[in-house]
Design brief:
By secondary structure, this protein is an alpha/beta fold. The protein has a domain of about 280 residues: Alpha-Beta Barrel (TIM Barrel), CATH 3.20.20. About 20% of the residues lie in helices and about 25% in strands. It contains eight helices and 20 strands. The chain has an eight-stranded parallel beta sheet with strand order 5-8-9-10-11-12-13-14. Helix 2 runs parallel beside helix 3, helix 5 packs across helix 6 and helix 7 packs across helix 8. It starts with a strand and ends in a 16-residue tail after the last strand.
Length: about 400
């Protein structure tokens, strides 16, 4: 099947060009710029891009990745695939170690089959003062032996772990994570600038949802935010939903460090599902007007965002300079940790346009990256939706 479009995003180009993609069975056999070599079987009116990659996602479609039921994993994945997200790192909320072990066992199986790109532990090694929507009674210091045991139980599938570096044992735990090819990400932290810099130097080069669940940037006490922005080794998560961070500030960060921002959803179960009452770990959550908050409070509890909307919000706020975002979120830095379907040099980077199996991490996707910057604005324009089964080529008609 030969698919053509007036706007195709290729790795050799900084913006869209006319081009085509050829798919044979479950393999992307060729891509090219300009007119297709023969009459196209399908001509799309949207933009043809690789699928989105979400490295911080707790669930969707009414289901959470914090589960012991594989069916919940499939439900959550289906919700995000339906809007073009084809690689997901499943995030786990704070829980007891035995519960985490059981949840990791389920998710690790999904990593092994290629359904997930990895696992992210967001908790329990977080600061009480910046816990956000995490159960305070389950937070714990990062005892290195406990950290090592969890990582070992996951069999190398934990790609990232959020940690507050000021906690006792954190620096040693960061070393344990790195030794297991797990990216330590600073977040939910009360750390000052010096402590943050020291932990970055120790290898904690991820920043979990900048601005959220950390001290604000102060002119006398800059805290972690300046350390993140100033250090070229750090890759920064950004939730571009217009709720977690103002659109103007989010766009500013993307102008300042355009190659180090990775758009994430931090989505909970209500992403792709109706407003209502949900659970986030052990905590009840109320979703009203697409905003998730801990029941009876103003505390934001994840998001209902999907990456197609995050990209539209970024494009609407920043104009054409964000066109490159339509292929995938900007990449996490090169590390020795890789997903089963990556090229071995990056993870979270998204696929490349080369002959490859059209699996969940190498899809064809069609989306219109124009749209509204309003919080949680509904998706607009044509989409090529990803199928639900691994190994199948992506082939869906676009709509106007």
């Amino acid at each position: 099947m030969l698919i053509a479009a007036k706007r195709v995003l290729l790795p050799t180009r900084q913006d869209f060009v006319a081009g085509w993609v050829e798919v044979a069975g479950d393999v992307i056999t060729a891509v090219g710029e300009g007119a297709p070599p023969r009459t196209a079987d399908q001509t799309l009116t949207g933009a043809l891009v690789p699928g989105y990659v979400d490295v911080h996602c707790h669930g969707g479609g009414g289901a959470a990745f914090a589960t012991e039921d594989p069916a919940d994993v499939e439900t959550a994945l289906a919700a995000h695939r339906s809007v073009g997200t084809t690689s997901v790192v499943a995030s786990l909320i704070t829980a007891s170690v035995p519960v985490l072990q059981r949840q990791i066992a389920v998710l690790a199986e999904c990593v092994g089959t290629g359904d997930l790109a990895g696992i992210h532990l967001e908790g329990p090694w977080l600061a009480h003062g910046f816990k956000g929507a995490h159960s305070p009674n389950l937070l714990a210091d990062p005892v290195p032996d406990v950290v090592a045991a969890l990582l070992a139980a996951a069999g190398g599938t934990i790609r990232m772990a959020t940690i507050a570096p000021e906690l006792p044992g954190a620096m040693e735990a960061i070393g344990v994570m790195i030794a297991d090819h797990c990216l330590p990400a600073i977040g939910h932290t009360a750390a000052d600038y010096a402590t943050t810099k020291a932990s970055i130097g120790a290898g904690a080069t991820g920043a979990t949802h900048i601005f959220n669940a950390m001290p604000p940037l102060g002119h006398r006490d800059p805290g972690p935010i300046l350390a993140f922005l100033d250090d070229p080794r750090v890759v920064v998560e950004l939730i571009f939903d217009g709720i977690h961070v103002s659109p103007e500030l989010a766009a500013f960060v993307m102008r300042v460090i355009p190659d180090r921002v990775v758009l994430v959803t931090d989505a909970m179960a209500a992403a792709g599902a109706p407003d209502g009452d949900y659970m986030l770990g052990e905590l009840p959550v109320e979703v009203r007007d697409r905003v998730a908050r801990l029941a009876g409070s103003d505390t934001i509890a994840g998001s209902t965002l999907t990456l197609d909307r995050a990209v539209r919000n970024a494009v609407a706020q920043g104009g054409s300079r964000w066109r490159k975002l339509s292929a995938a979120p900007p990449a996490f830095p090169p590390t020795t940790s890789t997903s089963p379907e990556s090229d071995g040099s990056r993870w979270g980077a998204g696929p490349t346009w080369s002959p490859s199996t059209a699996t969940r991490s190498s899809p064809v996707s069609c989306t219109d990256v124009s749209g509204s910057s309003q919080p949680n604005a509904p998706a607009r324009g044509p989409h090529l939706r990803h199928p639900g089964k691994r190994g199948r080529a992506v082939r869906h008609p676009a709509s106007d």
